[in-house]
Amino acid sequence: MELEPSQSPRLTSNATTSTSSRKRNKADECESEILEVLKKCEKKMDEKEKKDPFDIYSEYIAAELRSVKDAKP
Q1: Cα-to-chain-centroid distance, residue 18
Q2: pTM above 0.85?
Q3: Compositional bias (Polar residues) at which positions (predicted)?
Q4: How many Å apart are CA 13 and CA 6, to the nearest integer?
Q5: Per-residue model confidence as pLDDT tens digits over 19-58
Q6: Cα angle 56-38-47, degrees, rounded to a multiple of 5
């Protein structure tokens, strides 16, 4: 059973459509994964920026202790 020339483009276009749909779905999955990672990074960066007085004081003490260690002969 041979295909008529008019049927051939339809088969090709359907195959192309399904392939491009798969590529688009995969791209959408990648984009959503990237967006999720970026949101997690943003959340962690926001957490790092929030310092209470104890954080600031502990960093000061740590810097002082490092300078004492460096000053010893």
Answers
A1: 27
A2: no
A3: 1-20
A4: 12
A5: 788 888 888 889 999 999 999 999 988 877 788 899 899 9
A6: 15
